[in-house]
Amino acid sequence: MSIAARTPTNALTIDVEDYFQVSAFAPYIPRDQWETRDCRVERNVGRILELLDERRAKATFFTLGWIAERYPHLVRRIVDGGHELASHGYGHQRASDLDAAAFLDDIGSAKRLLEDISGQEVKGYRAPSFSIGAGNLWAFDCLERAGYRYSSSIYPIRHDHYGMPDAPRFAHRVRDGLLEVPVSTARLFARNWPASGGGYFRLMPYPLSRWLLRRINEVDRQSAIFYFHPWEIDAGQPRIAGIDAKTRFRHYLNLQHMDGRLQRLLDDFSWGRMDDIFLAGETAPAPRAS
């Protein structure tokens, strides 16, 4: 019996943004320069869709409204492939950098835009850079009000840019109509360790990442939530001049190996959509009055 047959289905998630939109590049690339950059997201998402189709795997694509507005055909291709379309906000602004009114406007406009393009309900949201934490839990009120049914915006680790290490590790209800589904961590030596992708997946040897995910499946008996970005499979992306050494290391490390590692990951585990795994059997809440 294969590993995939005897362990829970895991949620594969892709944060659809381009290389010049990552938060770490914000000091170097002003937003008014985004339109002038070589946009590579269409090619990279296309490659991801090919990998998923080859293995008959499904995923959730947390997509920026900025991207969807410019590439509506890419949004429709995601949906036509049987994948879940979810929201990453409109302009990749951290929730922790916005007040409640601005955050509500961002998540509401992104949801409406994605739904208009796709013709489907957008149930999920992920904050850029996992930027919901102890200091802005009011964001969950906004998400519920905007009509989202789940969030995947908290990372229960310590990190210099984000993290809420004392948060629950697994899916939990944060408002009557809203689940928080944190990306995955492994509990070892009284501490939460990253086990869900991103730069850690490129940094760690693949067998270690696989072991951590198996531990979540087989010891915790939980579905894991894994994430990555389309730019992470693109070793040929333009290099940004003048960035600091830490940002350069984190962003460009092992990009050339990411495609191969993803293929191994897809083969070693069973993958599905966030909504199918975490909202199955739930009744949608009645709309709230605005």
Give the SSE map:
Blueprint: H1 3-6, E1 10-16, H2 41-55, E2 60-63, H3 65-70, H4 72-80, E3 84-87, H5 100-118, E4 124-125, H6 139-146, E5 150-151, E6 172-175, E7 178-180, E8 185-188, E9 191-194, H7 199-203, H8 206-218, E10 225-228, H9 245-252, H10 255-268, E11 271-272, H11 274-278
Parallel strand pairs: 1-2, 1-10, 1-11, 2-3, 4-5, 5-7
Antiparallel strand pairs: 6-7, 8-9
Helix pairs in contact: 5-6
Structural class estimated from helices and strands: alpha/beta
Count of helical regions: 11
Number of strands: 11
Number of domains: 1
- Within the CATH hierarchy, at the fold level, what is the topology? TIM Barrel
Low-confidence stretches: 1-5
Question: Considering DSSP H and I runs of 4 or more, what fraction of the residues is helical?
Answer: 25-40%
Please describe the biggest sheet, giving its number of strands, its sense, and whether it closes into a barrel.
Answer: 5 strands, parallel
> How much strand content do the residues show?
5-15%
